[in-house]
Amino acid sequence: MARQWYRGKWRVNKEIAPLVMDVLNQLTQRGLEVKHEGEYWEFWSYHPGDTWSQEQKEIETRIALLTTLFSDASIECEWESFLEENWQNNWRKYFKPQRVSSQLIVFPAWERYQPQAGEIAIWIEPGMAFGTGTHETTQLCLKTMLELFPEEKPQSLLDVGTGTGILAILGKKLGIKEVVAIDIDPLAIEAAQENIRLNQIKDIKLEKGSISEIRGSYDWIVANLETKIILPIIKDLKNCARKTLILSGILAEEATLIQEAMDSPCRYTRHQGEWVCLVF
Ligand SMILES: C[S@@+](CC[C@H](N)C(=O)[O-])C[C@H]1O[C@@H](n2cnc3c(N)ncnc32)[C@H](O)[C@@H]1O
Description:
By secondary structure, the protein is of the alpha/beta class. The protein is 34% helix and 31% strand.
């Protein structure tokens, strides 16, 4: 069945355009189609029908903030809807392979690649879930997992808020025996299922739900969620982590909030851009 999408047609003065594009990239992770760069930049953003009203609200809040901060901002957007068939081939060209580290490279589903010895390749069909490997918060988790794995050799991993499944897939490719991935969004579960199949992995247990429904504990828990989502579930995350809890999606200035709520020492911190990953 064809899916409904929304397209934002943006026209922004050149001084402010990169900031607006950053906002859109961070929120959607879907890439933008740049149409014209001059005194005014014109570009299009894409939003799935299911989450459009929520995304639109978030975008409007952030754009209103930019308009308040920059008196010279001229930001116009026209919205239109269309069906998926007309779009699918266009947006793919904006997803490029991401080298996360010398050991790890993330490819869009349609790229072919033969990994070198010792190298891990992950293929992702971005679909409508978060986690293409381009976002700093995802990269922080991937890099932290790669760094801690050789010493800790966990036997089990729970990925809370799996999105595309990228972190669970890395867990399995590193050799973790039991990997479970959960997400509250059915579209994420659908996307993760597709990516697990794409990477030819058979035994990741995928479930729709939140940490409160999890029984038992795991050597590693990785959760790339926002601070406001982490805080109410932090006790559950802590209780389910047998050895290591990797938390990402945290702005550097929010790190103390998380540390206070954890009430135990943070043993590893990694920064990228404005984001931080904390390991307990
Ligand atoms: C920022 S994305 C992270 C995706 C992927 N793990 C990555 O690192 O790129 C956060 C995901 O968490 C999901 N999520 C939000 N709140 C959640 C909760 N309380 N329990 C489980 N998943 C949640 C969202 O649906 C979304 O797919």
